[in-house]
Specification:
GO terms for molecular function: acid phosphatase activity; metal ion binding. This is LPXTG-motif cell wall anchor domain-containing protein. It comes from Microterricola viridarii. With 935 residues, the chain is an alpha+beta fold. It is built from 12 helices and 44 strands. The strands form 8 sheets. It has an 8-stranded mixed sheet with strand order 24-23-22-33-34-35-36-30. The chain has a 7-stranded mixed sheet with strand order 25-26-27-28-31-29-32, covered by helices on one side. A hairpin with a 6-residue loop joins strand 15 and strand 16. It is globular.
Length: 935
């Protein structure tokens, strides 16, 4: 960056120089040097704090008097214009959502106020002030805008930016311009700092409709920021954003990093890292991954090799003088088998509200997660930088500390047919399909025929296009595979395609061939996999769930490959509903147990579709069973991996008023377990069903009736077997005819296999409970005063006979010996009829307080506040009598800030409290740092 020139100083300094000359003649004594003025560190324009004057009635702001753009200059009289803070917009004349954005201030949409034609152009003005000397200290000006349909920006009367403004003629202030591009678009701009002056600076904007019948209009100016002049050769201090970790093919010894530069002038990038335990800092150069979506800031990526396995590293990205904060990650441990990962469906809508809350809940639940898989549609429009910013903001902590494995969805292609933004934001392994990895399919491209040449052109194009969208990585015994299920001839057709005529030409079956191209590669990748577990993720589901959708090509080509290799999990999105199930051929003789792939569709955003009707159910019409399906639900999934099992749990993060579940937010929505021996024998069991093989059998891992297995629940010679109904010497057998404590009327427990999603409900219990805790069980008024038998499963254990009160409620004690984890409360009528069941999470009592709520508000502490009680800490972020960590942090920060202000006031009047104030300042700084880390 160049230093300020003398012309600029002269322009701003004439008055100052004259004044100094006068003062120099008056003041003979030397004066101390004045401190250089500071450039504002906060944005000078923001959405919330900046008031705009605006004209939205369709009139010309200069009305023929004066220069055409006189309204953009300082001093223009806008006193009769309206005034409000942003954002601004309208949808069909109303204050409603414009794409993913909802304006705060309604603009007049139509010239007559009620119907088309629309107002062609809207005019906005605002200003900000700079103290004397500050303008010269500004080195760069950065602005962000979100608009629909076109935009021009002026500063102090000079045009500084234009977006989709090629139709702006400059002959009239009122004119239509821009293109109908769907949702509002986010862009950034820079301003020559030479345009700034000390005193008042004016920002003016013209916002254009593209046509007289346009259905919406939108403007937001999230920020305009000033950055100080840097020494020659020193980069602008603007830390990188969108910092993300992505896996390599060798996550034990290498790691990939990507980020967005903090400033358009950052012409290089680096990664610095060191062992978290201490050691030398290593610096690795990054490559420039491109400029996309009219964002002037470049993307950078780097892959660091030569790392030590199972080692924690600290790192930062950026360049000298403008680094990110230090973050921490760990390389994979080849000797470890136990970890978690998170599975997200579409984020897409609600990126600034629903999405960050879903991720927050997932981070709180999956504390051992090594990463996340994403089934596409991370955003709604691939060319919209605001949406990308919001997605990355939601993932700030997770993305910077654990690997992100994402599949592109159809919305990543919206406005970005070549996936330029995707490939700039992410760095994935380049082990995608090629003619060397698609088996016999590659033979179609061999030869001099028109058909072969066309196949060769497609395959060459797809090899390049599939890079970073079709890939795999192996992590501690799991092979994670990502596919690209979107099929559109526009981006699948090479720029130069050899001519070919006839039915054999591939140009007539591009969509199918693209699916086969990946399928052949997938078959080879699974054949060669040495991993015990195999998980595949892609966007469009092979078994559609929402109304009107079906993907027969994907199902025909990919499902046989999944079945052939008995892949463990097939994770999908796209349908904005939830579903999970299996192919009917994988049923076993035991209800609740299958032995093939599990297919799941999930939704992690605020967009919801309706379920398909039973008559048109794609699953049941194609030899598949939906164990669970639901609409109006937003979920995330946590998968616990161990040597012998994958335990899948779906958690309810948000739901609509029309949701098909009565479960509370935070509850386990769906659950199953995959148990697999090292020899590859597999069982998929529903919650509460015991697999035929005990994965932790210390004697014989495959003998289901080992008579000396101390943990075998069906051991015929175990004298304390809790499920042996005829063991005459079992002292805890409740139906033992010789048991002196046998109540004599206890019905046989309900078969766990009959507890399905169809009969779930009928009772209500807290989401969590402690061993030994008394919990309320709501049976409903229909069961008032009725005698009932409550049980706790997995292994059915009677909780004793109870009689409901007049409100239909009983109390039940969770046995003190109950293991932590997922259980079910089951209630039977006196005659043994099932009244209902509900899941409950049994969690350990947290030490340090006089009671722990554990997230349900009904624990021993019995509190229902927001973290303000005293005692131990809650889990899950809700409160009983314990103190919420989040609440305590916010409270402490407020108390410290108040104390600090008081201490500073005492210092100003001569109070002798410096030591105490300094101590409190340090405490406040720690609190703010911790708060920022959590935000």
């Amino acid at each position: 960056m160049t230093t300020k020139d003398t012309v600029r100083w002269h322009r701003r300094g004439v008055v100052s120089t004259a004044l100094l000359a006068v003062l120099g003649g008056v003041l003979a004594a030397p004066m101390p040097a004045l401190a250089a003025p500071d450039v504002p560190t906060e944005p000078v324009v923001t959405t919330a704090s900046t008031s705009w004057k605006y004209l939205d009635d369709g009139t010309d702001p200069v009305n023929g008097s004066g220069a055409l753009r006189a309204w953009t200059a300082p001093g223009f009289d806008d006193s009769t214009w309206k005034s409000a803070t942003g954002s601004f917009g309208a949808k069909s004349g109303k204050l409603a959502a414009v794409g993913p954005h909802t304006p705060a201030t309604l603009l007049n949409h139509y010239l007559n106020g009620t119907a088309a034609p629309t107002v062609p152009t809207y005019f906005f003005r605002t200003s900000f002030d700079l103290q004397p000397g500050v303008a010269d200290a500004v080195g760069s000006v950065l602005g962000d805008v979100v608009y629909d349909d076109a935009l021009v920006v002026w500063v102090n009367g000079t045009k500084v930016a234009g977006f989709v403004d090629d139709r702006v003629t400059g002959t009239s202030n009122q004119e239509y311009a821009g293109n109908s591009g769907g949702d509002p678009v986010a862009s950034s701009f820079t301003v020559d700092p030479e345009l700034l002056v000390d005193g008042t600076n004016t920002v003016a904007i013209a916002l254009y409709q593209d046509r007289a019948t346009s259905s919406d209009i939108y403007l937001d100016v999230p920020s305009i920021r000033l950055l100080p002049v840097q020494d020659p050769g020193t980069p602008v201090v603007a830390p990188p954003t969108r910092v993300i970790l992505t896996p390599t093919t060798t996550p034990e010894t290498s790691q990939s990093f990507s980020w967005l530069a903090g400033d358009a002038g950052h012409a290089s990038g680096q990664v610095q890292l060191r062992p978290a335990a201490g050691g030398d800092v290593r610096t690795v150069d990054a490559y420039r991954a491109g400029l996309v979506n009219n964002n002037p800031k470049p993307h950078y990526s780097a892959t660091v090799t030569g790392l030590a396995p199972a080692t924690a590293y600290s790192y930062r990205v950026g360049l000298e003088g403008s680094w990110s904060e230090w973050k921490t990650f760990s390389t994979a441990d080849p000797a470890a088998t136990d970890f978690q990962f998170v599975y997200y469906g579409d984020a897409q809508i609600g990126l600034d509200s629903t999405w960050p809350e879903v991720v927050r809940q997932a981070e709180a639940t999956a504390t051992r997660s090594v990463g996340s898989v994403h089934a596409g549609d991370l955003i709604d429009t691939g060319s919209n930088e605001t949406q990308w910013n919001n997605w990355f903001t939601g993932m700030t902590n997770s993305a910077a500390s654990s690997n992100v494995m994402a599949a592109p969805g159809n919305h990543e292609y919206s406005g970005d047919k070549k996936l330029a933004a995707w490939k700039a934001n992410f760095e994935y392994p380049h082990n995608n399909p090629s003619t060397a990895t698609i088996g016999a399919l590659a033979d179609l491209a061999v030869g001099d025929t028109d058909v072969a040449r066309q196949y060769a052109a497609y395959f060459a194009h797809w090899e390049e296009f599939a890079a970073e969208t079709v890939y795999y990585t192996d992590y501690q015994g799991v092979r994670f595979i990502t596919l690209n299920a979107t099929r559109d001839s526009a981006f699948l057709t090479p720029a130069t395609l050899p001519s070919c005529t006839g039915a054999e030409c591939p140009s007539g079956k591009v969509s199918r061939l693209w699916t086969e191209f990946q399928g052949a590669w997938l078959d080879q990748v699974l054949t060669e996999s040495d991993s015990k577990w195999n998980v595949v993720t892609f966007h469009q589901p092979v078994f559609s769930t929402s109304a009107g959708r079906d993907e027969p090509v994907l199902r025909e080509i990919w499902v046989p490959i999944f079945q052939k290799h008995s892949i463990d999990l097939v994770l999908m999105g796209h349908d904005h509903t939830y579903a999970r199930g299996y192919i009917n051929d994988d049923r076993t003789e035991t209800a609740g147990i299958t032995d093939g792939p599990v297919y799941a569709v999930s939704n992690s955003g605020a967009k919801h579709y309706s379920l398909e009707t039973e008559a048109k159910n794609v699953w049941t019409n194609n030899n598949a069973t939906q164990v669970l399906r639901g609409e109006g639900v937003t979920t995330y999934q946590v998968i616990d991996v161990s040597q012998g099992q994958l335990v899948y749990r779906s958690y309810l993060a948000e739901k609509t008023a029309n949701a098909t579940t009565a479960l509370p937010i935070g509850a386990v929505y769906d659950e199953f377990t995959i148990t697999k021996t090292d020899a590859g024998k597999k069982w998929v069991t529903e919650a509460g069903i015991t697999p035929p093989v005990d994965p932790v059998d210390p004697v014989d891992p495959v003998d289901p009736v080992d008579p000396v297995d101390p943990v075998d629940p069906v051991d015929p010679v175990d004298p304390v077997d809790p499920v042996d109904p005829v063991d005459p010497v079992d002292p805890v057998d409740p139906v033992d005819p010789v048991d002196p404590v046998d109540p004599g009327t206890l019905p046989a427990p309900v078969d766990p296999a009959t507890l399905t999603e169809q009969n779930r409900g009928g009772i209500t219990v807290p989401a969590t409970a402690n061993p030994g805790q008394t919990i309320p069980v709501e049976l409903g008024a229909a069961n008032a005063n009725a005698p009932v038998w409550p049980w706790i499963y997995s292994t059915p254990t009677s909780l004793g006979k109870a009689t409901a009160n007049a409100s239909g409620q009983i109390s039940a004690v969770v046995p003190a010996a109950t293991a932590t984890g997922e259980h079910r409360i089951v209630v039977q009528a006196a005659d043994g009829t099932l009244l209902g069941w509900a899941p409950v999470q049994v969690v350990a009592v947290t030490p340090g307080g006089d009671g722990t709520d554990n997230g349900n508000g009904n624990g021993n502490g019995a509190g229902n506040g927001n973290g303000a009680g005293s005692g131990g800490s809650t889990t899950g972020g809700t409160t009983g009598s314990a103190t919420s960590n989040t609440g305590a942090l916010a409270s402490t920060g407020a108390e410290i800030s108040t104390a600090l202000i008081a201490a500073l006031a005492l210092l100003l009047i001569g109070g002798a409290t410096a030591v105490v104030a300094a101590r409190r300042r340090r405490a406040a700084a720690v609190t703010v740092s911790e708060r920022d880390a959590l935000s």
